[in-house]
Structure formats: C-alpha cells, structure tokens
Specification:
Shape: globular
Distance between the termini: 30 Å
Largest sheet: 6 strands, mixed
Radius of gyration: 23 Å
Low-confidence stretches: none
Oligomer: single chain
Length: 465
C-alpha cells in the first residue's frame, strides 16, 4: 500500500482523506470541526480520528505519520481579493475571472480611475491580495498608473499583483514598491477580446502559499503537513478540469458542471467552452474562460440562509413547501443565527432540501449564459452572453446539503433548465453525480502530484444519483 493523506481545512470542518495510490481508491476519511484560532488543534483532531479508523483496517499509526500530507484551505475567511481594471466589462472583468479561478473570494471589482472614496473603501475591506490590471498591451496606460499612485497611499501591508499593460508594468510596480510587495505577471487581457488569466492565477497561488498562509495563521499546521498548496475552491476547479480533459491517454468526461452548496456561499464551476449550440447565434461580451468559477455570497444554507430567502423570495420558497412566508422567514432566521444547526425533524429536513434546491437553482442561473433575440434590418438574430451550458451532461454535486440529503437528486434538479426561464442556457438533460466522500478537493490536490492517479480516484469515488 502506498499511502497519502489529503487535507481540506475548511471554515467549518477539517476533512482528511487517506488514499491508496497503488489502487487509486479512498481507504479512510474523517472530519473534525475546524478550530479557527488555532487550526492545528482541529487538524490534530481530524488526523487522530483518521488514525483510529485506519487502525481498524490494519494500518499502523506510524504508517499514517510517515505518509505524505498535502492540504488546501478555505479557513480564516479563505483568500479574499480586490480586482481593479480599466473597463468594467473588459479588463476589470478579466481581473475578476483570474481571481475567482485562483480560488479567491472577490470582495469588490473596481473600474476606471480610483477615487479617494475607493481608496478608503479598499482600506476598510482589508483584502489579502490586490490584483491590478488595466489597458491592453501598448494601449491605455494612464489609468493603471493613476490607480497605482492611489493604492500607494494605502497603509496596508499586502501583496499587489500587476497584470495590466506590459508597457508600463515596471513603472506601475515602482510606484507600489515602497508600500507593498509587488509581483508582475502577464496582462490578463493583452488585446481586446483575448483573455490570458492563467499566468495571473498561478502568481495568485504562489502568493497564497508564500504569504497568505502565514498571515492567516495557517502556517502553524506546517509541522503536521507538507504544506498548504492552494485555496480549496482552486483545488475543486483543478479536479473539475482534470475530469473534463482526462489524464494521459485516458479520455475525460467532456464539458461538465460542479455545484458546491455551502453554509455561507454557493460556488458553481463550469468546465467547457460554452460556445453557442443554437445555429446562427452571435456571442457578445468578454470571451469565457474554459474553467470558470462563480461564487454567490448571498446563497448558503446556514450563515446565509436568511440572505438566500431574501434573494429568492419567502413567497416563492413558501409556495414550494406549502408554507406561509412568515414560517419560511422565521426558520431561516433561526438557522442563520445557529450555523451549527443540524436538521432533526422531517420538517427540518424538508426545509433544508428547499434551501439547497433554491441555492442550486439561483446560483446556476447566475452562472449560466443567456440568449436573447434581437431584430435587425436583415432579420432576427440570437445574441448570447455568457456560457451555453444547455448540452452539458455530467453535473457533480458536493457539499453537506447534498451528501446528507435523503434525496440529493431532488435538490440537484435546481440546475436543470426551467421552461419558465426560456432564455437561460442551463443544462436541459444532465446526468447527476454525488461527491459523497468530499473527494473533489482531495482529487485536485493530488492532481498536482499525480494526475493519472487523481483522475482514477475521482472516477472511482463519484457516484451516479
């Protein structure tokens, strides 16, 4: 047996998975509450629980201690970023996509020239990293220089990644070097209509490992593990990319969707080009990245239960359940104030299912593209904005609301195209898979070391529902 331990230090739970690399299978799993003020304590508890479970399978504690231990984390608020660009729908959006794809939570996106009010707001937001973009290569340079000068006035000791017009990148970094640690990488939009987000994503990950892990107190766990290599959402996106594209000579699953409903947020990851499937359709807007992630901070089933009800409507959820809107609001208020809440009665379970369904439905609607018909002098034309997900088959669900549900398929139906919203480009006939052992983040971590084994592990672990 060749053993490796893959760890996800989450905001609520620390999950540890023991994997037999020789057989590419999960052989043990345990989770313990994350201890926010000292993550080492929660990690030790999770590893101790795993050791007890493994001992029943004949694996000695010494074998577990000697096994490699790789980790990802979304604890201590995860990776929080500010994205700045020139034009809202172009370089600013490209910067936002780069940050989201790196596993960050984007606190706010700024476009055009920063004002003094913007500067003060950024100081109040206290981001972990600022991603500064703006201008195509050889294009506008005055705005990114102006914004660098404004940022230089901030009294913040945080990294700034410069990913804008390469003609002035060194000059921009020069204005910031006295106040910040700066990193220069390739422009996220070197020319109009062309995204180049991967270099920025890689630098964000590098900065995360070098500075953010220590700043959030996560480095205390370094005595127990080899290192924290990426934010958890980046690990999940890495797993999705691997599943989609395949490994070595093993073909992938093709275009796919991952829905991750949590207590505070709902993440949706799509892997695929998203090109139009309707003949004669014209695409408008920024090109979509192959690996796209969106995170909805108002859609969650615990801390964000009340914001979810507000976003969807208490009347809508009440109609779905056959309840009065006041009942929906009252129960959501209770859950929001008790993040450790676990459903007990059949009514509790029913409400949890409804929250999961509407979080899935709303988040996937926001993630998917839309199509609209425009009438021109030469006739009607279909215009697509965003990704066309209508033909996607595999949809993978991860998160406690799915794993602990008596009917995960019912919750997942929220991702399916609704005839009431005919212009949403959501999947029309998907096939559902459940990440019942929370293996996606672990698979993404392992993919950095051994993509073939990681792919086999994912295929062996995900089950059809």
């Amino acid at each position: 047996m060749e053993l490796i331990v893959l760890i996800d230090i989450g905001s609520t739970f620390t999950k540890v998975s023991a994997v037999d690399l020789a057989e590419a299978r999960l052989i043990g799993r345990f989770q313990a509450p994350t201890t926010p003020f000292n993550v080492t304590e929660g990690l030790e508890n999770a590893l101790s629980g795993l050791a007890e479970e493994m001992s029943r399978q004949g694996v000695s504690p010494s074998d577990l201690r000697q096994a490699r231990k790789l980790a990802c984390s979304s604890a201590a608020g995860g990776l929080q970023m500010i994205a700045i660009g020139l034009v809202k729908d172009l370089t600013a959006e490209a910067a936002r996509q780069a940050a989201l794809g790196a596993g960050a939570r984007v606190l706010k996106t700024y476009a055009y020239e920063l004002t003094e009010a913007d500067r003060d707001e950024i100081a109040a937001l206290q981001p972990d990293i600022i991603l500064l973009a703006g201008g195509t290569d050889g294009g506008n340079h005055t705005t990114i220089i102006h914004n660098a000068k404004v940022l230089a006035e901030l009294d913040l000791d945080i990294p700034v990644i410069v990913a804008g017009n390469r003609s002035v990148a060194s000059e921009v970094a020069g204005y910031l070097s006295r106040s910040f640690s700066t990193y220069i990488t390739a422009n996220v939009m070197p020319e109009i209509g062309r995204l180049q987000v991967e270099p920025a994503r890689e630098v964000i990950r590098q900065v995360f490992m070098e500075t953010i892990v220590q700043a959030k107190g996560l480095s205390k766990a370094s005595e127990l593990i080899e290192g924290i290599f990426m934010p958890t959402p980046a690990a999940v996106l890495r797993a999705g990319t691997l599943l989609s594209r395949g490994a070595g000579k093993t073909p992938g699953w093709g275009d796919l969707l991952i829905v991750d409903v949590g207590g505070a947020t709902t993440d949706v990851h799509s892997l695929g080009s998203g090109h139009p499937t309707r003949p004669g359709t014209v695409v408008r807007g920024l090109p979509e990245p192959f690996a796209k992630r969106t995170v909805e901070g108002d859609l969650g089933v615990r801390v964000s239960a009340l914001p979810l009800v507000e976003a969807v409507g208490a009347e809508v959820i009440g109609d779905h359940l056959g309840w009065e809107p006041s009942q929906v609001i009252e129960r959501a208020q209770r859950i929001t104030s008790e993040p450790d809440y676990l459903p007990q009665s059949p009514e509790d379970v029913k409400f949890d299912q409804a929250l999961g369904f509407f979080a899935t439905k709303t988040a996937s609607s926001r993630h998917a593209g839309r199509i609209n018909q425009v009438f021109t002098p030469t006739g009607a034309v279909w215009i697509q904005e965003g990704k066309d997900l209508s033909q996607i088959k595999p949809v993978i669900a991860t998160g406690g609301v799915f794993v602990n549900s008596p009917n995960a398929r019912e919750v997942l139906m929220g991702v399916v195209h609704d005839p009431v919203e005919p212009f949403e480009l959501k999947p029309t006939a998907p096939e559902f898979y459940l990440d019942s052992n929370y293996i996606l983040a672990a698979g993404g971590l392992l993919a950095e070391q051994d993509s073939l084994t990681a792919f086999a592990l994912l295929e062996n672990s995900l089950r059809s529902v």
